[in-house]
From TrEMBL:
Organism domain of life: Eukaryota
Enzyme Commission no: 3.6.4.12
BP GO terms, sorted: chromatin organization; DNA repair
Example GO molecular function: hydrolase activity
Name of the protein in question: RuvB-like helicase
Keyword entries, A-Z: ATP-binding, Chromatin regulator, DNA damage, DNA repair, Helicase, Hydrolase, Nucleotide-binding, Nucleus, Transcription, Transcription regulation
GO cellular component: nucleus
Protein family (similarity comment): Belongs to the RuvB family.
Pfam families cross-referenced by the UniProt entry: TIP49
Organism the protein comes from: Manduca sexta (Tobacco hawkmoth)
Amino acid sequence: MASLAAAQVQEVRNITRIERIGAHSHIRGLGLDDSLEPRAVSQGMVGQKMARKAAGVVLQMIREGSEIFSLEMSKTEALTQAIRKSIGIRIKEESEIIEGEVVEVVVERAAGGGGARVGKLTLKTTDMETNYDMGAKMIDSLLKEKVQAGDVITIDKATGKINKLGRSFARARDYDATGMYLLCILYVIYRVI
């Protein structure tokens, strides 16, 4: 009996152990063939065939996709938006937006030529007319959008982004050469984007 117990102990010691670096170090790939069809068991992956195929399609899109050149968003943001759009995720964001017709834009520069510019913006809605003090970034945004008196604009209060919607119907000329005309029925609103 003693020799039988010694033989069993000997067998336990001879079992080879699998060396792993991490919890998922046995996974070598997605387990897909060349046509992006999942194999039953391959490269350490088992099951989830549809998810593996979807991951393979995304990987193939990234490898074969053209370069994205944009000043407004990064490559990662463009890819994230495309993936969200493809799987149907909609993100709603609540932001406070000011809309109105520009009555007057006054930009004051420092007397010495250098220094910060300050300005005032007068917006008119059907209910009221309000004055806003502007800093240098807001003035740069107005100049970039080429905003002038009679334009209907929106201002995002959180980011300071200005969008020009068109010309006011009251300031419209007889011909339609400057873009679309809008009635001044605007006010400060909360819009879900």
